[in-house]
Amino acid sequence: xxxxxxxxxxxxxxxxxxxxxxxxxxxxxxxxxxxxxxxxxxxxxxxxxxxxxxxxxxxxxxxxxxxxxxxxxxxxxxxxxxxxxxxxxxxxxxxxxxxxxxxxxxxxxxxxxxxxxxxxxxxxxxxxxxxxxxxxxxxxxxxxxxxxxxxxxxxxxxxxxxxxxxxxxxxxxxxxxxxxxxxxxxxxxxxxxxxxxxxxxxxxxxxxxxxxxxxxxxxxxxxxxxxxxxxxxxxxxxxxxxxxxxxxxxxxxxxxxxxxxxxxxxxxxxxxxxxxxxxxxxxxxxxxxxxxxxxxxxxxxxxxxxxxxxxxxxxxxxxxxxxxxxxxxxxxxxxxxxxxxxxxxxxxxxxxxxxxxxxxxxxxxxxxxxxxxxxxxxxxxxxxxxxxxxxxxxxxxxxxxxxxxxxxxxxxxxxxxxxxxxxxxxxxxxxxxxxxxxxxxxxxxxxxxxxxxxxxxxxxxxxxxxxxxxxxxxxxxxxxxxxxxxxxxxxxxxxxxxxxxxxxxxxxxxxxxxxxxxxxxxxxxxxxxxxxxxxxxxxxxxxx
Length: 544
Ligand code: GAP
Description:
It is built from 14 helices and 28 strands. The chain is α+β, with helices and mostly antiparallel strands.
């Protein structure tokens, strides 16, 4: 594992900038907010849209199917889809989500809070000869400090007696303890308030039709992937693609997460950017490796620091019910302790699980993926669609069920990672030469919400008119901002915080020689270019 070289960034400062500058707001904030739901403000919506557009272009519409991409085992085609959020309930039975998509949760009888079982971690805290277990949530910042403070409070110790308390080094999950009697739950004051773990399905339930009864219950999709699998035959028949090929989809997914937290990292409503790549079983390992590398390189191409990203291969016991191999691309999110990483994207080798399940019925997890799960009468527990979802290779005549490689990325998690990566502070002189801390969002120009800002140096001598004309011209090509308020230095700072890569100033010379200055957000270099060259110059800088 590599350790990020960049200094630790403050999550509090990033969250506060996101709100102050209009990247992200809590949903329904004026009513106190609703946990796990987030709204994108004027800058945030542009950032997320740019991220999704970059993904769609680089993975789907811009893909060259005539020549092999670097590292690919061969050429392939890519097409897109846009499926509904609500689907036939049988989809979720056969996908396995109905039976298997759950988390274990524990409730606290005192605080009435609910936690994901696997996230409650304890450390042994001893005072004299009495030991208790103080629980916190995994990923919590300053875990050690928090545990010590709560231990002191529990044992009623003053600060001067801090050395009379011992905090164990090992952090353990509560299933490792004989009982929870001695556990101080994350938000409790007394011991033993946690219930036994209970299963909780993460899908949001809804009912079809006004008179809907039990048979009309269905779910909001927890992943976009299933829409792709159930349309496999439609795409084959309508677009004449040949294996190997991929289908991409960007859209909302919903999960009733027990503990949504860490800003947008774990939300209840979020967007995914998923590819289901269909290939011959014999080639599936090669394609799996290809997609792992391709997706990692994509993040790097958009400005991620290689030291802040890792590729982590899952252990067998971590694999989802459908997966025969998964690697996660993980990012060193600043809310995690140093050296820890959070999932940004999963690349899973799903074998033929999904297509076979939708053909034959839900596969038996006990013998997965070879047999269909049977009920007590020996009949399939969940009937499949009965439709033939196999593929026939026209050239060889071979008929097979394609294997699937699934690069599955989160648009919100991606946007959050790029926001965290972009957040930078440096020291720059202000207009009086005094050093000031500058906050700058070093977003890749393709992702930046606003590509250019146009400033007249002063509000007279024809400068505003010339600046407005240039603004109008740039608007045809890029999201551009016009600002004539306050000192130029302050206008630069405002754009630095918004992540605008280029600021263009119209000054006295512009009117005589038809040139402007373009200032680069990161290097602070200023170049002088002809007014007519501004559009092509920016175009080249943004697209690279
Ligand atoms: N179809 C496979 C699938 O959905 P996943 O690992 O559960 O796999 C894929 O989700 C990606 O979706 C994750 O890597 C993450 O980026 C995003 N994601 C999943 N749950 C999320 C949540 N609660 N909030 C925000 N993003 C989430």
